[in-house]
Task: inverse folding
């Protein structure tokens, strides 16, 4: 037996040098063996009360003031005090440096677990995943939040707390529809536009042929149609980012109100990748902490007792109750993510025939970390599941697919189970459960009646008969109308373009008065 | 890597958000506080605690979808095969539906701190006769210590601070100590001729330094500094007068006790220091402690004037009206001997009312009886007469525990504002 390396800690106590040692040991393994690429780490030790504070401002270290955060705080505090819910061991922030909050109550083993999980697992994912790279600016987020906080406070001073609160309430109601789902086309500036027009003219001159004039064209578009097309183009319609549209086009908003909408929109955009990568993000972090902790134990730097403590909490984290269990509340992203990462590792290392058939590209290539790093960088939950959920894992978790159609009175049909006929269907359906395109209602601004009463027209494309909840929809539309300050209508249409229901809401008129 | 210890950062970063939330939900929280306080003992009223408010006014709406055909993938299949039909349970909404923020929570529960609770509990109550209180507030002026100053009156020299500074200065400037000079002089006495001039010069130098550096320099002197600050008359005395003659039952005493406690809580919130004087009376009055007041046995006739006289004596001897805000609450079943009315009336209007901020009369009745069919007692009709002629009296009838708070609330609610708010 080789001489055991020096232990990182003994027992449950820790101090700051211990944290430093743990971090350095984790870093060595993360960089050399796992090949992770992380932002510099900043570890902050906080108390339970501070953790509650962080909860109520969506985990961010600083945030503008709003009553809804107070409401969440009051709720969290009550349920924590009564013991209904524990607190997270850590919170990690996608910023550079990457900030991880550790609770002071954690034992040394837990701190090691949390450092491996957050400061390396999540950190690597934040830095490398394409969604985060595309949509978030890790270097700038804290500065931006600082700006936002200051700006909101300044607005309150200048324009009154009530007016600011009303604007923020409205913006928060539309937050889930204040997101750009696709990177936008950059608008050309005048010079480029002119250049393009010039090129087009040159081409027309070079390729001039009088014969084209005699070729019959289609029916002439009517003036009205041309006008409406032009109007829609000018306004950038249709537009699914409602907050962006209001910020740019709402006729009566004050400049500061537009800026507030912009702030809410930016923050929503910042969190957008997180909602699309829950399974992957947690799967990555869990896989990384499992690898690092196991390695530390193999090196003899963690004692057997502490390793058992780790295994116990690890097992709790990746526990997946069955659907008929009282504790079941959907798939546990930690469990599913971790299981899939381990499965990928197995497929790369020791594939069987089935794996070769299903995953020809990665089966048996021998370097699981290279494959995993590639997966972590280039997929989101939906694409990750639809590519990498293996039949073996479906069998292991005994997945099945239910189809619940209210039209069928006999009951809910079991559409697929974990057998050869069902694998692909189950995989497709599960991936769809994580597809934001299916999760969020698809609502977009389609037109504005500029010539008439300036009504804003929205459209909800109903998928699979799932309509909006009426009370909530009315309330949100009320907020929307207040910002737009003229009537707003929302039509729900099904796939065949039949209108199912129409909402019309009039503004309450605070925006104009504010 | 950096490690930052945030534990020492000031806590309650969310306090402001929490206050905003409470302000927004004020009406809802207030009614919740009322409701939750009904179920408690008055002693516990101050304790704060959990309240739940309906989510209605506080919701954060989002576009949510519901209904339609739903597909879900679940783990843990035990016996299903493709094509099985499972009966729907309940209302057609499967178990895998997201526990969204909306319908699933019908009420929002959270914990109020003690201060928040009492504030909301007594929120729209106001002390009567504020004019006098304000006048009294401006009067007193107190002084308190505020560190040290380099100037001041000789009477305020802080000796310890001054000598400490002087000592530090002497040490720093190396002022020779007298023993040092004495020692050299002793050496001078029995030393050889050749050393004498050197020693002499040294002694001379030391002495010069000794003179140059004073034992206490003016720059050492420190004075104690005092600041004056206006001291509001933050004290109140509360007189509890109660008839303890045989006709008062335990139930009636309990009602009175509850009323006194509410008054105490209320005064405590406004004044830093509240004293309570218990006066019980039959046909003669005595000042007693709380225990005796509520539970001590007593019997005899009923003379209200005796209690008023006792109160007047106590005010005169111990509570100067200029320094004290005086509140009085009298509880009785309304019996009084018919000959006493005249005396009591005069005592009240001439002696008691002019010095009191507030005088409440609470007529307590038997538990079964409704307050409406309590016939006017002799005391009630006496006070009614006084009030009609302009005496600032507040009077209510109570016969059930649940009426105590409404009556109290009624007596103290903010009248001026109420009228303004009502359109």
Result:
């Amino acid at each position: 037996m080789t001489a055991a390396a020096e232990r990182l800690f003994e027992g449950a106590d820790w101090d700051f040098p211990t944290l430093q040692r743990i971090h350095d040991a984790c870093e060595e393994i993360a960089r050399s063996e796992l090949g992770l690429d992380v932002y510099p780490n900043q570890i902050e030790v906080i108390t339970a009360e501070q953790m509650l504070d962080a909860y109520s401002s969506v985990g961010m270290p600083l945030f503008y003031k709003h009553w809804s955060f107070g409401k969440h705080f009051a709720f969290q505090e009550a349920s924590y005090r009564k013991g209904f819910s524990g607190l997270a061991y850590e919170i990690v922030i996608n910023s550079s440096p990457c900030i991880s909050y550790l609770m002071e109550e954690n034992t040394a083993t837990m701190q090691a677990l949390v450092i491996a999980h957050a400061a390396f697992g999540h950190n690597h994912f934040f830095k490398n995943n394409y969604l985060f790279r595309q949509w978030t600016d890790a270097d700038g987020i804290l500065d931006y939040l600082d700006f936002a906080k200051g700006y909101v406070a300044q607005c309150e001073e200048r324009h009154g707390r009530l007016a600011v609160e009303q604007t923020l309430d409205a913006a928060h109601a539309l937050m889930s529809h204040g997101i750009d789902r696709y990177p936008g086309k950059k608008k050309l500036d005048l010079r480029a536009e002119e250049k393009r027009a010039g090129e087009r003219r040159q081409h027309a001159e070079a390729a001039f042929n009088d014969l084209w004039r005699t070729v019959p064209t289609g029916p002439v578009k009517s003036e009205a149609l041309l006008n409406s097309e032009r109007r829609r183009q000018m306004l950038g319609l249709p537009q699914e980012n409602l907050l962006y549209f209001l910020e740019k086009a709402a006729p009566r908003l004050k400049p500061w109100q537009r800026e507030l909408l912009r702030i809410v929109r930016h923050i929503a955009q910042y969190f957008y990748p997180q909602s699309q990568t829950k399974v992957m993000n947690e799967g990555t972090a869990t896989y990384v902490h499992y690898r690092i902790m196991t390695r530390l134990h193999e090196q003899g730097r963690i004692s057997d007792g502490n390793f058992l403590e780790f295994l116990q909490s690890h097992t709790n984290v990746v526990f997946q109750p069955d659907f008929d269990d009282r504790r079941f509340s959907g798939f546990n992203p930690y469990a599913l993510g971790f299981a899939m990462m381990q499965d990928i590792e197995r497929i790369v290392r020791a594939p069987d025939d089935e794996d070769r058939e299903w995953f020809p590209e990665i089966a048996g290539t021998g370097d699981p970390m290279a494959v995993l790093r590639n997966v972590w960088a280039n997929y989101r939950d939906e694409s990750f599941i639809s590519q990498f959920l293996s039949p073996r894992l479906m069998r292991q978790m005994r997945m099945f697919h239910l189809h619940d159609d209210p039209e069928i009175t006999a009951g809910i049909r079991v559409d697929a189970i974990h057998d050869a006929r069902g694998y692909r269907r189950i995989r497709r359906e599960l991936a769809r459960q994580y597809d934001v395109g299916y999760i969020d209602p698809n609502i977009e601004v389609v037109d504005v009646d500029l010539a008439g009463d300036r009504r804003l027209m929205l459209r909800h494309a109903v998928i699979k008969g799932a309509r909006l909840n009426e009370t909530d929809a009315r309330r949100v539309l009320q907020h929307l109308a207040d910002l737009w300050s003229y009537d707003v209508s929302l039509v729900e249409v099904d796939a065949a373009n039949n209108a199912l229901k129409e909402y019309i809401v009039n503004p309450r008129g605070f925006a104009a008065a504010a | 890597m950096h490690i930052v210890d945030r534990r020492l950062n000031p806590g309650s970063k969310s306090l402001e958000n929490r206050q905003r939330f409470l302000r927004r939900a004020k009406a809802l929280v207030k009614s919740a506080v009322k409701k939750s306080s009904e179920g408690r003992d008055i002693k516990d009223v101050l304790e704060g605690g959990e309240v739940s408010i309906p989510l209605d006014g506080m919701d954060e709406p989002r576009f949510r979808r519901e209904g339609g055909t739903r597909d879900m993938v679940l783990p843990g299949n035990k016996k299903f095969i493709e094509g099985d039909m499972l009966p729907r349970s309940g209302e057609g909404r499967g178990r895998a539906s997201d526990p969204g923020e909306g319908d699933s929570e019908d009420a929002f529960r959270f914990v109020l701190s003690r201060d928040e609770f009492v504030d909301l509990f007594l929120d729209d109550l106001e002390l009567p006769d504020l004019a006098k209180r304000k006048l009294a507030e401006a009067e007193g002026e107190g002084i308190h210590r505020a560190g040290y100053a380099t100037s001041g009156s000789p009477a305020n020299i802080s000796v310890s601070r001054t000598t400490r500074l002087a000592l530090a200065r002497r040490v720093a400037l190396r002022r020779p100590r007298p023993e040092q000079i004495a020692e050299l002089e002793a050496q001078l006495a029995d030393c050889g001729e050749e050393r004498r001039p050197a020693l002499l010069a040294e002694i001379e130098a030391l002495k010069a330094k000794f003179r140059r550096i004073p034992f206490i320099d003016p720059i050492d002197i420190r004075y104690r500094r005092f600041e004056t600050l206006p001291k509001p008359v933050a004290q109140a005395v509360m007189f509890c007068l109660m008839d303890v003659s045989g006709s008062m039952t335990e139930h009636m005493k309990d009602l009175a006790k509850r009323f006194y406690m509410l008054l105490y809580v209320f005064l405590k919130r406004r004044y830093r220091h509240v004293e309570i004087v218990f006066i019980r009376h039959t046909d003669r009055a005595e000042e007693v402690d709380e225990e005796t007041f509520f539970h001590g046995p007593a019997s005899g006739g009923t003379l209200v004037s005796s209690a008023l006289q006792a109160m007047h004596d106590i005010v005169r001897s111990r509570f100067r009206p200029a320094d004290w805000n005086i509140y009085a609450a009298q509880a009785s079943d309304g019996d009084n001997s018919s000959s006493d009315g005249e005396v009591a009336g005069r005592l009240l209007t001439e002696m008691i009312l002019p010095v009191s901020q507030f005088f409440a009369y609470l007529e307590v009745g038997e538990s079964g009886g409704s307050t409406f069919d309590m016939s006017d007692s002799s005391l009630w009709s006496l006070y009614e007469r006084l009030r009609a002629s302009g005496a600032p009296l507040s009077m209510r009838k109570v016969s059930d525990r649940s009426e105590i708070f409404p009556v109290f609330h009624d007596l103290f609610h903010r009248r001026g504002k109420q009228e303004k708010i009502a359109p």
Remarks:
- Residues 89 and 95 of chain B are 9 Å apart (CA to CA).
